[in-house]
Amino acid sequence: MGGGFDTEVFLKARAAxxxxxxGEALVAGGTLPIGPDENPFIxxxxxxxxxxxxxxxxxxxxxxxDLFSLAERARFENTIFTRDIRANRMGIKLDFEGAPFQIxxxxxxxxxxxVPGDIxxxxxxxxxxxxxxxxxxxxxxxxxxxxxxxxxxxxxASLDATITFKFLSIEQALEYQNQYTERVSQLSDRLxxxxxxxxxxxxxxxxxxxxxxxxxxxxxxxNQ
Length: 224
Prior knowledge:
This protein is of the alpha+beta class. It has three helices and eleven strands, in the order E-E-H-E-E-E-E-E-E-E-H-E-H-E.
């Protein structure tokens, strides 16, 4: 599908956003038009990182991290989280076992600017990871902020995937993020021919594997 989807472009995107009435939802049996194939990288692929299994998510301290005690921050790093069913493009709630994460003067925090990746602790001490369409201000304490390169691990994690967090210093975070940016810039160099194993192809029957039909018998064979 080198041509990509050829749907209507709105605000330089072909995506749908139902909350504000842009685009339509996909339905069973529906079709999407395909654009002309002008991509020179046909029949090539990339080895995609498996981001559906969660894993270790790297974070940096926020302006409110120091409101949490050292013991609470250490417990946060040592806690195994799973993605809660309550999730959208504004934020994703994480579930875990154990006591809630709280600070002593939580009710005295004033609302201020927040950004995607911030990890807010709501009133019940449960973390919400803010996503690209989060609100612009918030008053819940933030224990840290997820690096942009690791935010997809949260967004694409399955419900049974386990997630852990690790604090990085600013210097470590910049190096980690720069390495990610460099890997992204080299994606075209990592393309290789698309070779599929027929034994593992789930859509094998959709391919025409035989170009013509021939008889399995000799023309003079009377046992046909």
